[in-house]
Amino acid sequence: MRKWKKSALYLIGYVILFLLAGMVMYQLNQSNKQAIWSSIIPAKFLGEYSIDGGEWKPLDENTKLPAFDGDVLLRGKFEEQYPGEVSFYLNHIGVSIAVNGENVFESGRWEDTIPEIICGSYWSGWSNGEIDEKDTLEIRLHNPHHYGNANAFNQFLHSLVRGGEFALENYARQGSDFYFWIGTFLLVISIVLLGIALGYLTQRLPMAGLLFSMGMMTLSMGGYILMDTMDTCFRSKNYLFNICMRQYCMMFAGLEFANCIRKTLTGKKRKAANVLTLMLGVSDGVLLTLSLLGVIEVFDGEAYWAVISGLAAVVFMGICIRAMLHGKRDKRLLLGVYVVFLGAALIELINGRMNFLPGGLLIKIVFMFLLMYLLVRAVRVVAFHHRTSIEAEKLEEKLRNSRIVLAMSQIRTHFIFNVLNAISGMCKYDAQKADETVVRFANYLRSNIDIMQEDEPIPFFKELEHLGDYVVLEQVRFGDRISFRTELEVTDFQIPPLVLQPIVENSIKHGILPKGVDGTIYLSTKNDGANIVITIEDDGIGFSKESEIGEDSVGLSNVRFRLEYMVDGKLEIRSREGQGTTVIIKIPFPQKIIFKENENEYNLRR
To answer: Which helix (H) or strand (E) holds 121?
Structure first.
């Protein structure tokens, strides 16, 4: 019940985050009035650049324009001068173009708040009109952000191209098709993983939670890869949706990876991971809420998210490394893969500001290796559980057969004839006792038949009632030669059906009757702090080896089997020749225990 409550809380948290994300996207779409216009003319810009009004430096193909040191001014001309249209890629920046000092084009974002010309990642263009070699072009690039688009200026410079809209779309997709198919593949894999997780959840099998988190992480990473390409605006014309979806996919991928880690850990480390994951989820919710209220914009919140995620990654790495030192080999390998992915994520978060690697490339490569490892592991787990389910079916069949064998063994022909003969004799001198014995005998036969349909452990008192009927019937046959006493400390627990009677029958048949004199069987229950202990003791002849009980016994191996696989119980036999036999059954907790105030001792013969 406690696990289901936790699952419900996590589900509610996910619903809240998804609702907040959807509300932010709806709000931004309602306020957006700009349509994207795209057409291209391939053009190579030649000249020089200046950073925030500083000295002019020559511009070449190897120039790395800083995006966080202020505005960058480009001065020069296109390699080939003729009328036409120039297209370029804007990644959350503003661009203005001036010819001979006169401003002729402006697009993108310029201020800290979003104006009519909204911030985003998309292709834009400018019709250059009549420009010749004497004209001087000045292009100003402005970055309103402090994180996340460190390579934006170079993306603009390298994306200057020529041609019509169809040619531009094909050009943009040349370097994006690979990522498109990778993202699509991940979406398909995520659906498979979520389907398996749902199947595991309905059957209450282990690994359901981890498979669900793997599926959600794969779904989020697939969406991130699809949205993090330069041709996204051609696949989805609503670039506000593209911006929001890319950001949300990053957030949810990080959150689900944290879930994967915490579900792998145990003990105190898992508790720490639970707290850390909860903090990540709450921080995501806060950022979405602030974005919804207009306090910050979606892309601006990426800087805060990066700081929180970076700190969480460092702590998670420490937890995983500590767990690796004491975990099993298979788990150490999985945690090691987690550490590698956390390291890659940390590098990418730093790279969002430093721009020393192509943005997003490292995390995508490492994630694919992580996914391949997790898929192999998941396949192994699914195969294991498939084999386990087959073995469980075989075990269930074996339990069913053992139950029927045990039940039928108690309805032996000679036992029935002996009881009926004894009842017949009673009818001549004690009709009332004969009637009572008939009722006992009917109850005994009915309970044996009912047991054939029983697949679960039963309350102890029901097994005790069945045993009482059997003992009374044996006392009808053998009179005072058999006494039965109980001393019950605990009674409210579960036990496999038809476990006590076979043991008592062995005590009578192989212990007391061969003795030739009266004998007593003692049944007691107690709690030793870790187990429910049931003791059945007789003062019969005993034996030196268990095999000496006799081949015609009920079959203690059958009883052992049912105890082990139904309640994880154990059976132990202690015996000495001439001193009797003791059978001890131990059923481990958890069991609901009710202690009796006073020890109860009574004779079932009454």
So the answer is: strand 121-127
**Strand, coil or helix: 565:** helix
**In 79-120, which ranges are E strands?**
85-91, 94-99, 102-108
DSSP structure class, residue 120: -
Average pLDDT, the chain: 78
Q: Which two tokens stand for residue 514?
A: 């061969």
* Cβ proximity of 45 and 74 under 8 Å: yes
Tell which residue, 452, 473, 551, has the closest CA to residue 510.
Answer: 551
C-alpha span between 322 and 337 (Å, rounded): 14
Residue 378's closest CA among 195, 117, 122, 128?
Answer: 195
Residue 38's pLDDT band, with cuts at 50, 70 and 90, is very low
Residue 337 backbone dihedrals phi, psi, to 5 degrees: -65, -40
Residue indicated by tokens 């001979």: 100
The answer to whether 141 and 156 have CB atoms below 8 angstroms apart is yes
The single-letter code of the amino acid at 528 is D
Q: Which of 544, 538, 545, 523 is nearest to 581 (CA)?
A: 538
- Report the SS3 class of residue 112: coil
Cα of 212 vs its chain's centroid, Å: 5
Ramachandran class of 266: left when φ > 0, alpha when ψ lies in -120 to 50, beta otherwise: beta
Helix, strand, or coil (residue 600): coil
Rounded Cα gap, residues 228 and 230, in angstroms? 7
C-alpha dihedral, 425 to 430 to 433 to 435, nearest 10°? 70
Distances in Å between the Cα of 363 and the Cα atoms of 178, 198, 221, 409, 498 are 16, 28, 10, 66, 60
In the chain, the amino acid numbered 586 is: K
Pairing of strands 94-99, 137-142: antiparallel
From the list 136, 133, 117, the residue with the least C-alpha distance to 56 is: 136
Kindly report, residue by residue over 230-273, the tens digit of the pLDDT. Answer: 888 877 777 778 878 888 888 999 999 999 899 888 888 999 99
Residue 279 in this model has a pLDDT that exceeds 80: yes
Given a contact cutoff of 8 angstroms between Cβ atoms, the answer to whether 75 and 57 are in contact is: no
d(CA 540, CA 30): 90
From residue 220, alpha-carbon distances to 121, 240, 258, 310 in Å are: 19, 18, 13, 18
How distant is the alpha carbon of residue 141 from its chain centre? Answer: 46
Cβ-based neighbours of 493, under 8 Å, separated by 6 or more: 459, 460, 532, 587, 591, 592, 593
